[in-house]
Structures are given as C-alpha cells and as structure tokens.
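Weekly modeling sync, notes
Attendees: AB, CL, MP (scribe)

Item 1: holo prediction request
CL wants a bound-state model with zinc ion before deciding which constructs to order. AB pointed out that an apo prediction alone won't tell us much about the pocket. Agreed to run with the ligand included and paste results into these notes for async review.

Input as submitted:
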Amino acid sequence: MTVPGKKDVKASGKQAGDPVEMAEGMIIKGVGGFYEVWLPGHDRSITCKAKGVFRREGLVPLAGDRVRIEAHRTEPGQGFIEELLPRKNLFVRPPVANMDRMAIVLSASTPAPDFHLTDKLLIACELRHILPLLLINKADAAEPGRVEELKAIYAPSGYPVITVSCRTGEGMAELGTLLAGSMTAFAGQSGVGKSTLMNALIAESHMATGELSDKIQRGKHTTRHAELLPMARSGWLCDTAGFSTYQLDTVEHGDLGLYYPEFDLEGINCRYQGCSHLKEQGCALQEKLDAGLIPKSRYETYAMFYAELKERHENRYK
Ligand SMILES: Nc1nc2c(ncn2[C@@H]2O[C@H](COP(=O)(O)OP(=O)(O)OP(=O)(O)O)[C@@H](O)[C@H]2O)c(=O)[nH]1
Ligand SMILES: [Mg+2]
Ligand SMILES: [Zn+2]
C-alpha cells in the first residue's frame, strides 16, 4: 500500500501543520479492535482503532461501514475512526453493513443444498431491500439434470439464478458483469465454493480456499471473518463465514407469505382473511401448490418458518 502525499487527503479545516487530518472511507475488515479502512481516491487503506466513545455508546463498527477517520501525519497508516456514517442496512451476525446484493451459493454436487438456509437468506434480503442472486456452483461435478432441478425450484420466485463452475469458468463472465459496481455479500453453506468464486472474480486475492476433505466434507481453510475484497473493474465482494447458518429474522407469521414472491398472495386473493395457507379448505395458495405452480421445497420452508414464527410470537413475553 502506498503512503499518500499530504495533498491527497481532504482538507479538514484544521490549521496547517496540524498532526491529524480527516478523511472518509469504508471499513473493509475488522479484527481484534483494528479496522482496515479503505480510502477511495487514495487507492490505499489505513489501519484504524475506534475511538473510546464507540464502546461507551455500545456501537460496533462493521465491515462495509462508511466512516470518518482522523489520520496521523506523523504515523502514516494509522488513524482513529471518528464517526460512523448512516447505514443503508446491516446484519448483526455476520457483522456487515451496506450491502447492495447477496449472492447465495448452492452446490450442484456436494454439499447437498440446504433449502432452509437459502430461503431464510432470501427473506433476510427482502427485509433489507438487498437484491438476492442464486448461484448454482460446481455445475461441472453435477449429476445429469441436477442443475435444472435446482433452477426449477427458484425460477418461479423471479430471483436471478446463474449456473456457474469455478472449474470450467461457466457463467463467470456473466456473474462478473452483474456484480460490477456493487457491494455483494457471498452467503451459503461451508464448502459450496464461495471463496473459490470470489478468488475467480477478483484480480488479486489473499483468501484461503480449502480442498473439501472427504471425511468431513468441509473446507479446510474455512473463512473466519468478514472481509471486503475489491473486484478488478469496480465493486466489492464480502467473504464471511457467518452466513453459513442464519437465524430466521423476526417477521409477523401472518405476513411470512409476502416474502415469497412466487406465492403472489396479493394476486391470488385467498378467500380467507388471515389464512395461514397451511390447512384451510379451499385456500388459493394450496390450489396453486396442487397445480404444481409453487415448488414443494419453497412451500415446505414456508410451513416450517410459519410454525417457528408463530411459536416465537406466542412466547414473546415469556
Ligand atoms: N468441482 C468443483 N469444485 C469446486 C468448485 N468451486 C469450488 N470447489 C471446491 O469446493 C471446495 C470448497 O470451496 P471453498 O471456496 O473453500 O468453499 P467456501 O464456500 O468458501 O467454504 P467456507 O469458507 O468453509 O464457508 C474446494 O475444494 C474447492 O476447490 C467448482 O465449481 N467445481
Ligand atoms: Mg470460504
Ligand atoms: Zn390461503
């Protein structure tokens, strides 16, 4: 990383000769109380600590956060985070902020897809106005028909589904074009190939990718912290381990169906007010399911999440 000349750090309104200067940047990594802050326009990052005031206010700076920093002229590369700028959205676990998109990665071979995780993540995206994208990876190692089978589950939702392979390069150009210019979090089970995909998408990478061990079917060098990586053209990719399990967000169980676009609950006009769409006779959604218009896997996760949210609601004061 290059050390900047004085001229390329924004004027702070402070006196000339002042040992500190102010700048705006974005946290690309936070480990052990040290934050790597990217300074756009300077083409470098600077290591910062958070001011004590954050701890007192219970604020935790996150990867993806836009911040104002105070940089020391005398100690190049070191500074303090002064202020967190307003967030567009955030995830607590994993801790990341300001994502535009989420790439949810599924494997067409091993490990077998976890539809509960996938559908929880899709709901999380809907709630935060983050654009989800489904990536069916390892197309090279798939049984015949498997990719089509997975595509058919998500096609009715209208979410973009792209088939890719890190081995053959299939779909990678299309993916790179789609993600250019945005901040994308990669999510999905361990071993589906998130780090490998990101490695292929960025010019230079410091990420470790693990060979899937036959015994435990898990990447050996599993990603352990959130880190934003710059793409060659423009945009950032966020590698994080925390999205390989995800706790369902709290939504009204009665509204859950609204987060499944293909249910089209406003369009079908279920005849019952407050229909759960699970057991009522003559329910319009169940008719759609019987007609094969709703993928079974999607309806199954709906039924499971509905029960979980209803129970959470009933126990909310306990
Ligand atoms: N056949 C095949 N193998 C792949 C492909 N992409 C990734 N892999 C392999 O899958 C294994 C796991 O890949 P990683 O990129 O480490 O997976 P990850 O999703 O980052 O895993 P965690 O960091 O543990 O969450 C590695 O052995 C990769 O070489 C692919 O397109 N085809
Ligand atoms: Mg990884
Ligand atoms: Zn209904």
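Recorded for review: The first strand starts at residue 20 and ends at 31.
Action items: CL to compare against the apo run; MP to circulate these notes.
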